[in-house]
């Protein structure tokens, strides 16, 4: 422990001296900013991360808090209408034009509405297409004041918005809304201005009401244009001035009022129960008004204090919560902004069964202890040093931040009505501030938030549970608030990691992979290791290991334990160290282990200075996994809580029935229920793990990133070479659980608080695997997604969104799988299911080149954006191992995309329609709920 404390101190000293020059006085951003005569702000930033891309944001200092009583939901509705006809892009022409250029609706074209703001975005636009960039400026111009808002489009969108509200109206959302409106926001305008609005208003507002709201609040003095990307700032500024300066600022406009939230003097207690919620969640808040007058330096100090406190106290709660006898399964802490005028101190916890009041006492007492004494020296220095290291790295990287992250910071600054500061100055100031930051400063900051005013306790859970009365809850808070607990003594973990002598292995074969500059090495123990050094991200090495087999090779008696064997192992630690001992030792990097139906997969990440820690983790994950009964009990308690949540969900029986139908009602399909929990044993969990995670010769190990190949190979030989390998190779077993070639219907009804239908259709059948076929199936999925968006969402107003996933599987047999899922108005279910089948069949004979071109352009654009990301190449390498195919060069991928024809799509769609077996699942509300 003394050595570890000394090392932390040395690291801190190094960073302290690395601070260098003081940041000096405030420095504004060197980028192009300004305010037009009509009041519109603009921010233009040249940034080459990613290269050859530009992101456009249009920020409105307008949100639902400005709605009148009869307008609830119009701010959000107006956001939808911005994509449904403008002066220069009527109807859906805007979306069609952008998608034709490879910019995808929903991911790269989007918007959000909150209480105080509305933000539109068109992201990752190719920078070399000047005509496209000019057109997007025109779109932003139209959003400012030229939406058409036709009667027909308004009526069409009512159904879409109504279905969005239906989809989002989930039990946890209903509960959190109640805690916010009756506890945190009570007494303010915010309590009655949830951005979602009210369905009755969405259904019935007059057309002119929306137009009046738009005219009143969408105006240049409340708007900002944010453009970040690979551009010439001055040239773009000229275009912005020319495009947006003529927009008039009308006379006699209403003031954009600022609304505050009162801080209650008395204690507030809100219990939000719901038939569809399970085990309760406990939340303890202290409200704190935001001070809008803070300077840039004070804002930075506040954010740093939040970051330090959040990190230290959350880690402490996690460590204490994991101890035997703790009344909580997990707990977390944060000081964060809830809405623009209100910050909250928040502790949330998942109490163990029948432990609500003990959990609250635990939360309140630990908060009191942290407020009185702050952090231990080790906690404090460890966290401060880590943050200072991150800041120094950010300074070294300079302006090399993602364009969308830069844009986020800009529009948040705009909403605060603050000047834009230099990124380098901000990081330097934070580093300088932290260098002199002490535990007494942390305590002082916490005491500012820890007040007897504004206390709110929120509990959300099942309506079958009896909750403690308010007076008992208040008594716990008062007793904790008057207590004087002893200072926290950090749990000491003095044990050292024990490693046996490692025999290692030599390299017996080296081969270069075709297509990329990567090499595969075979060790004498049979392990195959691929190294792909890249220049894409400094200080990042990604790791994966994959082996065929998975649960398919397990005996039936072990299947129940197979679902959670890796979880128990993770909770148990490695070698002679438990989980928390392992974390505190800092000697080993964590490796995630996944046991799937037909494979085993390990993943992790590191950098060269810490690479040996990752290799230790890999070696011990194979050779010395921990399995202890405490870890099993923690896992079981977590699963028991999860089970109550699942079983209270109206969709749980439906989901289980679909799983069984998709797997032909095989007895190998394991469902989470009480019987499964009763079968969990430490012996069987360990047996499962050691049966599947062993034998280095059956695994392919892959490393991608910023590496010293020679140094990494030494670690490969030492650690991976020491994992036992018997030179055998497994093959997944096909249990023949694919559905028959027929329609299997799963129709159910359940009582619902929020009546809605859920439709889930799964199409599957035999199809030979090839890289080209996989691409075509992917394209079919995207084409179906677009068609369902147009017909089911836009034309029918039947749903908020349709999720389509289309895959081509290599194991256990070569087959396709297409899943179509959406929620909808129960009255439209039959019609919408019919459309799913119709459009699936139409792909066999009806396809136009524009549709296909949009998909191709988006796929090529995605490759261009991801080709310099390590995880992109990791995915390609793992896929090539899984499917035994060659890794294609980027230009070969693009060539293959360009070569796909309409005839290829039609032919594949015909084959799918002929060969598909279908599981048709529909969940409906009970008859009485249909009347709601």
TrEMBL record:
Q: Which residues form a coiled coil?
A: 842-872
Pfam families for this protein? Peptidase_M16, Peptidase_M16_C
Q: Which residues does the UniProt record annotate as the domain Peptidase M16 N-terminal?
A: 49-180
Kindly state which keywords UniProt assigns to this record, in alphabetical order: Coiled coil, Hydrolase, Metal-binding, Metalloprotease, Protease, Zinc
Q: Does the keyword Coiled coil apply?
A: yes
Instruction: Look up the record and name the cofactor or cofactors this protein needs.
Output: Zn(2+)
Q: Which PANTHER family match?
A: NARDILYSIN, PROTEIN YHJJ
User: What domain of life?
Assistant: Bacteria
Q: Which GO terms describe its molecular function?
A: metal ion binding; metalloendopeptidase activity
Q: Which family does it belong to?
A: Belongs to the peptidase M16 family.
Q: Name one GO biological process term.
A: proteolysis
Ranges of residues in domain Peptidase M16 C-terminal = 205-386, 680-859
Q: What species is this protein from?
A: Abyssalbus ytuae
Protein name, please?
A: Insulinase family protein
